[in-house]
Write a structure and sequence with these properties.
This protein has one helix at residues 2-82. The protein has 83 residues and is mainly alpha-helical.
């Protein structure tokens, strides 16, 4: 009877240890899953914002780039006049 109690005690202890390990693994995997999900969301948002930036800069770059160069050349002409 003593061996039976000892073995059943060890079996109960092993089951409790297995349950604790399973809970810890579940908690760690939950945190890892949240971190990966957050990083993927941030990466997708960064790519979308970058593509939007490229689209806007191409659309406005054609019309917006020319006046800047003209204003620069005008300011250079003004500098030359004052010299």
């Amino acid at each position: 009877m003593g061996k039976l109690l000892r073995y059943s005690g060890w079996a109960l202890l092993a089951l409790v240890a297995l349950w604790v390990v399973a809970e810890v693994v579940t908690f760690v995997l939950g945190i890892v899953s949240w971190v990966v999900s957050t990083l993927v969301t941030v990466a997708v948002a960064a790519v979308v914002l970058y593509l939007a930036y490229l689209l806007v800069s191409r659309l406005l770059g054609e019309s917006g780039g020319k006046p800047k160069s003209k204003s620069r050349s005008r300011s250079r002409e003004r500098e030359k006049i004052f010299e």
